[in-house]
Amino acid sequence: MKCKICNNETQYIFQKNILLKYPVKYFRCGNCGFIQTEEVFWLKEAYESAITSLDIGILNRNKYLLQEIPVFIDTFFPDGKIFLDYAGGYGLFTRSMRDLGYNFFNQDPYCENLFAKYFGFEDADTDKFDVITAFEVFEHLDNPLHEIEEILKYGDNLIFSTDIIPEDSSVEDWIYIAHETGQHIAFYTEKSLRIIAEKFGKNYYRKDNLHIFTPKNLTGEQIDFAIHNVRTKKNIFGKIKDIEAYNIQRESYQHRDYLKIKEILRNNVK
Questions:
Q1: For the chain, how many structural domains are there in total?
Q2: How far is it, in rounded angstroms, from Cα 136 to Cα 270?
């Protein structure tokens, strides 16, 4: 089997019972370390529920992202005006970011938009966005290069999360494999993500499980500054000696969105 990322040969490493009933083989690339399953046939069954019952960390993850991502945006993409959360599920992150003053829209054709209704992709005035976010998406991709290319059609800058394959423990026992639910089918090393970025003419940056694809040239110092100053929301483009000059003040969209939704509801009654 050829690697879906770099097209090199893969080797069988272990087998798991997907959905607790289908014996499925896993293969690792000898070049980039990417791990993939054998040909996927169970996804329709696996996605009978878009959000699995084992994803009990969804609320904690949203809380974490609401600390980190505003700082990432203000630090690295301070000119950004409109944003898209790709495969954003119930719209919780989109709603929360709008409340913080970021003009986010939610995209997910497989999950009901409960929290960001009227602020879905179809409600945006554009199909191009300054920054795209995609959290816990990459591990679900059956054809990563094609599907990442589709994501990048929405904009040049992508912030995403996915866990990197651990080097210090048995991959077979890694919790991220999540074979019980059958939705995680692609697992990345830092090298494999760098290869993907290069294929699309992007620079690649990583901080823990958060990753950036962008044509911009960022530095490790900038990324560290952004993470370590989560609560300050300060931007560091330009000279760091005057940090206050780069602080971005944002007005919440909550009240504006409330008025907009009221108007939409009134128009729907007419």
A1: 1
A2: 41
